[in-house]
Write a structure and sequence with these properties.
By secondary structure, the protein is α/β, with parallel strands linked by helices. The chain has helices at 41-59, 86-94, 98-115, 131-143, 158-164, 175-181, 222-234, 248-263, 294-299, 311-319, 331-351, 364-376, 381-399, 407-424, 436-458, 462-474, and strands spanning 6-9, 14-17, 25-30, 63-68, 147-150, 153-156, 197-202, 218-220, 238-244, 268-274, 277-279, 282-283, 327-329, 477-482, 485-490. Helix 11 (331-351) packs across helix 13. Bound molecules: zinc ion.
Length: 492
């Protein structure tokens, strides 16, 4: 495949040329949601980032198998090995069957992702459907001497592993750092070393999600699922493993250790991580009162939001930052994104009005080349968007008669916008947040009413004329009477 795609590999801390193991096939695994609550911005960013990777690799001609899991078991509250299972806790609070909770929030997640125009992955495996594969993984690690059984639970022996391999190579930590930052939690006495992590947990009597195993009735540790399901669907070596930066440690570090301890080497060639999201400069958190779900953004129904933001505004806003940079959400920043997106979409509509000339005074090829160069440079979407804005300027200049474009170049310009705006960035037409098309339809109705009002005025029927004006005003349409007749505008 002819391309120059560079992607940043977290493992080696540098941009590397992307070369799949078995071209034209590409295997990509991304950590999906833990389904115990409504999807929020923290779900939107990795989903959109890896949707972009998925779309671009397919555009380059690869056949991509994209696996994104659903965590419906084993993800404990404190991300350590203690605390209650997040799904089971929600189920207990709401008096539901755990699978009912998982299904409900999986459906909500899918609906939100569809609104954001995130393509569904090729396979979406559930952790609870792969208990046998996870038990096999645990057994292999035990057989190789890198795990031990304690009180019916199985723990990964980090110190033993670290003698033979490097625990911490992805996150850049060493075992000492890990020990210094490990919190002392209840139940640690089962472990030989506080840095050890659970591969299998014995279920307490009140624990509802449990499966039989050679060690106890229990459930797998959170890190097992991605190693087991990645290997099952993508093979023992595959190309890309992705997720949010917050997963680098411990989740992905533990995945590497599990893979090396079970099969002798790392399964993954390129580790990719998207950066995090803040809201008005703060980390998003329930206790800070800035925990905003995607639906609340779409409906404008959170006290921190001054208006609703369309899914495409959210998507565009996220893509305006490089995936490895942080993104800070604020009303001002989202409003700016909404305006920018409207400007871009208006320019694309303008493409249809252009009449080709005999020759071009604009350089369309250069625009297309620059968009590719930016995508190939570790998916630099803010630069792609900047070039598309240059393209929008080009369109407006042609429409204003300041530039000309030949028929062939016009086709290429249309194709460039279709490719980068819609196919690769995944934006959708007519959903730019300004509701431009709906406003145009309402506008025609208002025009009709103003014609009726003009007739009433001509007949000196002032009562009807005033009534129409006042009722329109009550709906937010301000009517102005001028020499040339009446005009209106919509006050939001
Ligand atoms: Zn994972």
């Amino acid at each position: 495949m002819e391309h120059q795609l560079l992607i940043y590999n977290t493992l080696n801390r540098r941009k590397e040329r992307f070369e799949p193991l078995h071209a034209p096939h590409v295997g990509m695994y991304v950590c999906g949601p833990t389904v115990y609550g409504d999807p929020h911005l923290g779900h939107a960013r990795p989903a959109i980032t890896f949707d972009l990777v998925f779309r671009y690799l397919q555009h380059l001609g690869y056949k991509v198998r994209y696996v994104r899991n659903i965590t419906d078991v084993g993800h404990l509250e404190h991300d350590a090995d203690e605390g209650e299972d997040k799904i089971a806790k929600k189920a207990r609070l709401e008096q539901l069957e755990p699978m009912e909770v998982a299904q409900y929030y999986t459906n909500r997640y899918h609906t939100a992702m569809e609104a954001l125009n995130v393509l569904p992955p090729s396979i979406e495996p559930h952790a609870s459907g792969h208990i046998i594969e996870q038990e096999q993984l645990v057994q292999e690690i035990l057989n190789n001497g890198y795990a031990y059984v304690s009180e019916g639970s199985v723990y990964f022996d980090v110190a033993k592993y670290n003698q033979d391999h490097h625990y911490g190579k992805l996150s850049g930590r060493n075992l000492e750092d890990v020990l210094n930052t490990t919190r002392e939690l209840d139940g640690q006495e089962e472990k030989r070393n506080p840095a050890d992590f659970a591969l299998w947990k014995k279920a307490q009597p009140e624990h509802i999600m449990r499966w039989p195993s050679p060690w106890s009735d229990g459930f797998p540790g959170w890190h097992c699922e991605c190693t087991a399901m990645g290997r099952k669907y993508l093979g023992s070596h595959f190309d890309i493993h992705g997720g949010g930066m917050d997963l680098v440690f411990p989740h992905h570090e533990c995945e590497i250790a599990q893979s090396v301890a079970s099969q002798g080497d790392d399964m993954v060639r390129y580790w990719m991580h998207n950066n995090m999201i803040t809201i008005n400069g703060q980390k998003m958190g329930k206790s800070l009162g800035n925990f905003i779900t995607l639906n609340q953004f779409f409906e404008g129904s959170h006290e921190k939001l001054t208006q609703a933001y369309s899914p495409m505004t959210i998507r565009f806003f996220i893509l305006q930052a490089h995936y490895r940079s942080t993104v800070d959400f604020s009303n001002e920043a989202l409003q700016a994104a909404e305006k920018g997106l409207t400007r871009l979409m208006d320019a694309i509509k303008g493409l249809e009005k252009i009449a080709p000339a005999a020759a071009s005074s604009v350089d369309v090829k250069n625009l297309r080349t620059k968009c590719y160069e930016a995508m190939n440079d570790d998916l630099n979407t803010p630069i792609v968007i900047a070039h598309l804005f240059d393209g929008a300027k080009m369109i407006n200049n042609i429409l204003a008669g300041n530039d000309t474009i030949s028929a062939t170049d016009l086709e290429e310009l249309k194709e460039t916008f279709k490719l980068f705006c819609f196919d690769i960035l995944g934006l959708k037409k007519g959903e730019n947040g300004s509701n431009a098309e709906r406003e145009a339809a309402f506008g025609k109705v208002v025009d009709m009413l103003l014609e009726e009002r003009a007739k009433a005025k001509a007949n000196k029927d002032w009562a009807t004329s005033d009534k129409i004006r006042n009722e329109l005003a009550a709906l937010g349409f301000e009517v102005k009477d001028g020499k040339e007749g009446s005009s209106w505008k919509l006050n939001k």
